[in-house]
Hints:
Layout (H helix, E strand, L loop, with lengths): L8 H32 L1 E13 L3 E12 L2 H21 L7 E13 L7 E15 L5 H11 L3 E8 L4 H26 L2 E12 L29 E14 L1
Antiparallel strand pairs: 1-7, 2-4, 2-5, 3-4, 6-7
Amino acid sequence: MTNTARHPAAFILPALIGGALLMGAAAPALAQTSADSAFKATTFSLSAYGETRVAPDMATITLGVQTEALTAGEALKANGARMNQVMAALKKAGIAERDVQTSNLNLNAQYAYEQNQPPKLTGYQASNQVTITVRDLAKLGATVDATVNAGANTINGISFGLINPQAAEDAARLEAVKALQAKAELYGRATGYKAVRLVNLSEGGGYQPAPPPMPVFAMAKREMADSTSIAAGELKVRIDVSATYEAAK
């Protein structure tokens, strides 16, 4: 009589496969149970915002020189000479090089238009503008005056901002969370449910410097007895928050 030995692995493999099948069958049931419990949970999905107002501590202003001449070279040469004087005035006023950036440089042909006649070239117009950051608002008016006296004849808007907005943003965050919690309590009283757990919290908004307005005026060189009056006002910093609370009776 012949005895045939069977290797233990022959029994282990079917057992492993069977166990995997059982686990695979159980996984959807577990997932379904978890999904059902989450679906049955009562939640409040709320949003709120907080604001704070602060005085600005910096300003950004765009100014420059516009010149005209019969030839392109003459227009650029005249513009460059006056712009050098403006840059020297900015340096004398205490504006650092890092706070001065060329923002626009143009050279355009100028034409005269008459009825039933082809356009006639009359000359060229050169324009050079810089955007400057003034970090001491007490010197803002005097700085503008100095550039105009040096030859600047265009000013294309001003905007105010914060050198470091962190403190203002944090104050707005606290106000936003207070408003969010107050709203959750209000809904709780109205529905008979109480917010028992914060599930998630997201934030939006924050400090954004106001864009400079469209060109507001042009100035010719003149002598000024007093500095130009500029009002800084206040800036509004807003933080938006959204949250989901789990609620229970």
